Amino acid sequence: MLLSLLGEMPRQENVLMKTAIEAMSQTNKLLREELEKSEDPTHDFRKLEIWTRGLISSLYELEQSWTAASFFRKLVIAGYMDDMTIQEQSEYARYVYFYKNGFIRVFSILDKLGTVLNELFNLSTFKTKPHFSYFTVLRQFAYYNLHTELASKLTVIKDEYKYTLNVLRKRRNAEIHYMNSEMQDDLWQRHQGLHDRVELEDLDKHLLDLKLGLDMVCKTMLTVFQYTNDLFIQKGMKM
Fold it and tell me: In what residue span(s) does the Cthe-2314-like HEPN domain sit (predicted)?
């Protein structure tokens, strides 16, 4: 949807994302089959099917945010705000919009996944923390010593991307609670010299961080839903 605004631009297929979505689609197929058999009197399977479809949509939106930010970044040539033309300022503003949309969505989609995991594996995370995050849910696996194989794989992924997640989290928190995230660097530069020209933040480094965040989400989704599909097939659809 987002990319339709930019016309038909050439894109490389994201194999990791494609595989993750295939795993989620397989989960939904299994859920629909169970719906037809049991008619789902408690509506649990229907709820999970809707939530999983929502995760697929959210993953597409995250990937499109990164792609759009990358597209507009290529149109920003100047290294200083004062050197930008009016048109380039507009392209930079579009880059910032999609970049910020992307790093906010990294944590949004993880927290949505946390809700699905909490429901799927009956972790009762709300008893620990009423408004919980994905990372709180991950700790619940260890607390109850449940699904240790899955929890171990998810922890490895989390630790692999620990630095990147910390960077994105700081920018997300600044954006939501304090100031526009892209202005943090401006503020730091003003502290160094009040009358110095303001250099743009490292756009390529920021885009790389966002891409790594996307990769982390894809690996996490793939791991969760491959495990879930194996569990459903081996043990039936009991929840």
Answer: 51-229
Q: Give yes or no for residue 57 having a pLDDT over 90.
A: yes
Domain tally for the chain? 1
DSSP characters over 47-68? HHHHHHHHHHHHHHHHHHHHHH
Any domain includes 42: yes
Record the pTM: 0.88
Q: State which residues form the domain around 172.
A: 14-235
Place of tokens 């994201």: 14
What does the alpha-carbon distance between residue 209 and residue 155 come to, in Å, rounded to a whole number? Answer: 19
Are 27 and 52 in contact, with CB atoms under 8 Å apart? Answer: yes
**Has residue 40 been placed in a domain?**
yes
Judge whether residue 188 has pLDDT over 50.
Answer: no
Predicted local distance difference test score (pLDDT) of residue 180: 59
- Give the integer Cα–Cα distance in Å for 173 and 120: 29
60: tokens are: 């597409």
Query: What pLDDT is recorded for position 193?
Result: 41
Amino acid identity at 74 = K
Give the residue from 217, 219, 232, 216 showing the smallest Cα distance to 49.
232
The alpha carbon of 71 is separated from its chain's Cα centroid by a whole number of angstroms, namely 19
Confidence bin at 38 (pLDDT 50/70/90)? confident
The Cα–Cα gap between 204 and 90 comes to 18
Give the residue with greater pLDDT, 114 vs 200: 114
Whole-number pLDDT of residue 131: 86
CB-based burial of residue 186 (10 Å sphere; 0-12 exposed, 13-18 middle, 19+ buried)?
Answer: middle
Residues with Cβ < 8 Å from 53, sequence gap 6 or more? Answer: 28
Residue 103 inside a domain? The answer is yes
